[in-house]
């Protein structure tokens, strides 16, 4: 009990340290005196001032569909060792300066990847003494406008650094989701027993998290910049959208506790056909992943509706755990709420491709599921521990009955000693777990008597010295029987030392005082009381008051005073009292 309190106190202290650290960081960020948005000073926005072929001023962030040629006067701008930097979205372009063509971006994309490269950042060094910049821009898809964003003239390194800083949080969100997914997959692969006990398909949930995390990477553009293959990043995102319905449905199916083998097989076939059809149409140039993404989104919507139906059916049948239902419900609400916010941001604030709140929703979903799985696992372990404890008690009780069956006159002795041991231990302030453990030790304290001849145990007359030594050997015999039970090592200790005395005159080792294990001290009092207050082969039980008198008399010599005091507190409370017949 003392050790348990020490561990609890240590955990509290560690949590306090972490909270202090987090509070310090938060206060430092909130009240720190530092200059914010330093990049604004270094980045010179050049969205305004562009002139088209008709001499009209145009807004590059709001172009009409089709090709455009625009020019910007930069003669008054500082362009020394600087670059024109911007983000392009499915737009091919050429950049001209006073020196002629300086940049041509028309990537050759492998046929199986379609014609869309997605999004990419560009930093194009401006030649010295350039007085103007001309952009010839053409959208990849003729029916869409060319998209140029985040235009600035600045140092290329500073611009890319700013890009990384801007998207680092989103990149961290996606990375966290992927890491969580990998951990769930590992748990599913290596922890089949845990997976079966919880009923949750860890692998499917982990794969879903990995796919969602990767999809979220697309709008951070960090992978595009690092790899230089925005087309590959874009198409693999489409692939995730094509296949994510299967693991997602598999996960939701597992939460219901029912098998939906045919339904899952059907969804797998649908996902596979969607992939084959989209690949075929893209290869033949009949269509492109860009246009067909709505098909994947429709399948995801249908998949979600199917998941809702099977979950509701499971709820009606009472097949889904309330705690799991709450976790899934709150997680889905977080995902839907995040997706709605991102859609509103896209339509009203032009946050192209931003999935920040959707990723937060997914992270909350994984957090809810993680908490549920942790609690469910702990509950499962506690249940198994309880079942093991019950089994251990039942086995111990069975052995106790076998022991007492050898002694005609002490039938029930082991069970009574175990009961008194537990009562005294509880009175002394031990926790329930220890009390239960001491009860089992008390049940088996005389197990060594199995090795004593029945004729000696039930002898009605006085024992010879040789017979008495044989009786005393039951402590060593009991120790030999129980010493290899490592789960509860005190079992052997209780059997060995319950006849030791504080004055050192006990057996088998002549221990004294604090050398005697605590459980053995408690059993000694319980055993002495029941031995005197029970019928024996050579005498009837003693008077209750006489038994109490003897126990008081031997306190400090034969029995431990602290344990004796606890025993008499139970007597004063009436929990141990005189009976008309032994029970």
Structural features, described:
It is a single chain. By secondary structure, this protein is α+β, with helices and mostly antiparallel strands. The protein has 3 domains: 44-154, NPCBM/NEW2 domain (Jelly Rolls); 167-381, Up-down Bundle (Rhopdopsin 7-helix transmembrane proteins), CATH 1.20.1070; 407-573, Hypothetical protein af1432, CATH 1.10.3210. It has helices spanning 2-31, 39-42, 156-190, 192-198, 202-217, 222-227, 230-243, 245-255, 261-283, 289-316, 322-349, 356-406, 413-427, 432-443, 454-457, 465-472, 474-482, 490-497, 518-532, 544-554, 561-573, and strands spanning 44-45, 50-52, 57-58, 68-73, 83-89, 91-97, 100-105, 119-125, 132-139, 147-154. A hairpin with a 2-residue loop joins β6 and β7 (100-105). Residues 33-42 have low confidence and may be disordered.
Features:
60% helix; 3 domains; four-stranded antiparallel sheet; Hypothetical protein af1432; 583 residues; Rhopdopsin 7-helix transmembrane proteins; alpha+beta; Jelly Rolls
For the record, give the distance between the C-alpha atoms at the N and C termini, rounded to a whole number.
Answer: 32 Å
Shape: elongated
Q: Give me the side-by-side strand order of the main sheet.
A: 3-2-4-9-6-7
Question: Could you name the CATH topology of the largest domain?
Answer: Rhopdopsin 7-helix transmembrane proteins
Secondary structure: number of strands: 10
| Radius of gyration of CA atoms, rounded to a whole number | 40 Å
